[in-house]
Amino acid sequence: MTATLTPPGAERGPRRWPLVGNLPAFARDPLAFFESLRDGHGDWVPWALGPKRNVLVSRPEHAGELLGAVEKTFRPMELGWAFHQLLGDGVVVATGEEWRRKRALVQPAVRPRQVRSYAATMVECADALVRGWSDGDRIDVHREMAGLTQRIAVRTLFGSDAAGREAPISAAMATAQRELGAEFRGVTLFLPPWVQTPGRRRLRQAVAVLDREIDHVIREHEAARAGGTERDDLLSRLLAARDDTGAPLTRKELRDESITLYIGGHETTSTTLTWAWQLLSGAPAARDRLTEELDRVLGGRLPAYEDYERLPFTRQVVKEALRLYPPVWLISAVAGDGAAIGGRAVPAGTAVWTSPWSMHRDGRWFPEPEAFRPERWDAGAEGQADEQAWIPFGGGPRACLGARFALVEAALVLAVLARRFHLDTGPEPVPVFPGLTLQPARPVPALLRQP
């Protein structure tokens, strides 16, 4: 069932509890909660997270308006103490002039021309992984993909000489993500920073590890630059960036942007690849079409950056995996003076939310929404959804800066591995854990088979 647009003034929303509002249902299963709001109450649904006023919008055009109006009549939502512990004041968190300054400094490092220079590293790391696989082996797909994208992220962000720091950075990031998800979905979201729960202590410890490791790498890069050595990695480009006044990013800013880029280059891509393998395992026709394209285009060789555009079905597999399992499953912004969506005024201070998970699984925009159908993205296919209905990287002026990097990485890695092996994950569905990104809630075992 999917709902129609509720007439203005007719919305009542779900039942709310005193003080906590709809927090219990949201905390129990936020993905199901937003689907229930859409299906049970319409496309514009008031709800409450604690004492705060909230609205969920579920139409693509309304989501597009919301995303396009951030930094105009909407401001990014205050994400809370835990998010600031991890992300600091990076471009994801910053607002106003400070956000514009940081975006201008960071964006050149992830433009398509720069992503091209990282493609060889992506392919090299993927090829090294697959050379260690054998027919009949059993693997944990999520662990393998996380390890692979972690190596790619460290090498492209910090350079090959930082490879020894992969393990502590990855372990600390995993802890931080888990605790962030728990904080966001629980009553601790409303606790003042000075209240130290066990989860918050674990988060602090993980962030301390990240600070130490990344500070060490930044100092190494600074020393190399002082000695006249230029490196071809993202951190070196951030070190060289200057704003309109000629000022560089401070060391704290370098730390914050490094964390942000690491999450974009590692966390989101590893989960996208994990879901892609799990979906392909249950779709033999799509798997055969992927194999045919890789054989025809690559002819047995490794892919290069130029092949990204030559592998349309490979890109469609990634796109469909992102539709069904968008890493960023929830987007929000707070209304300011003069805010409106769909011609309807939004009172200042109201938090407006849209859920890529819910929108991507709405049959009005995507026929058979629960089905894995990469062919729905074929050029000229009937019934294609408006691009505003597919928002795994957000949209508008604050769209994810690393979207191109993530898409190229996922497609090239998929091409390298799929030309050598099928990954059979079996028929058992994998539950989802909505943390900082949308993660598998358990290991994803798979049997390796050569085509």
Automatic annotation (TrEMBL):
GO MF, one annotated term: monooxygenase activity
UniProt xrefs under InterPro entries: Cyt_P450, Cyt_P450_CS, Cyt_P450_E_grp-I, Cyt_P450_sf, Cytochrome_P450_monoxygenase
PROSITE patterns in the cross-refs: CYTOCHROME_P450
Keywords, alphabetical: Heme, Iron, Metal-binding, Monooxygenase, Oxidoreductase
Binding site for heme: 400
Named cofactor requirement(s): heme
SUPFAM superfamilies attached to this UniProt entry: Cytochrome P450 (SSF48264)
Entry similarity comment: Belongs to the cytochrome P450 family.
Record-given protein name: Cytochrome P450
Organism of provenance: Streptomyces globosus
